[in-house]
Every structure is written in structure tokens, then in C-alpha cells.
Amino acid sequence: MSSPTGAKLLDERFFDHRRRSTSIAGMAGGVFACALFLYRHYVDDVWNWDVIAVAVTIAVIKVILMIYYHVTD
To answer: To pair with 38 at 20 to 30 A between CA atoms, which of 30, 45, 61, 72?
Structure first.
């Protein structure tokens, strides 16, 4: 029995690459938000709490998901 074309495209490698790329994108977003916060703080002497809130939210969600996947695996 042959598999449909979509099943060939969406195998476990696709989902692993999607997981890894999303993880890297999340970390890059958090680093960028931290860098933007520090730039605005040191150059413009302005405390942008919305930017640091984005960075903290990304970090907290990442840690919570790591703990969840570790416990449920």
C-alpha cells in the first residue's frame, strides 16, 4: 500500500525541524528583546517595561514548557 504524497512530506523529520526552528526563533526573539531593552536603557536612558515584559514572557514560557515536556516524557 502506497502512502499519500502529504504523508511523505510531513514525516517526523519535518516536525523535528519545525520544533527546532521554533525554539531557535523564540530564543532569538528573547535575546533581541533584551538587547533592545538594554539599548534603550543605556543610549536613550529610558526604561521600556513593555520590551522587558516581552523578554521575560518568552523566557518564562520556554522554561515552563521545558519542565512540562521533561515531566510528561
So the answer is: 61
Could you please report the per-residue DSSP string of the chain? -PPPHHHHHSSHHHHHHHHHHHHHHHHHHHHHHHHHHHHHHHTS----HHHHHHHHHHHHHHHHHHHHHHHH-
Which pLDDT band, with edges at 50, 70 and 90, does 7 fall under?
Answer: low
- Which amino acid is located at 14 in the chain? F
What does the buried/exposed string (b/e) look like for 15-53 if buried means 16 or more CB atoms within 10 Å of the residue's CB? eeeeeeeeeeeeeeebeebbeebeeeeeeeeeeeeebbe
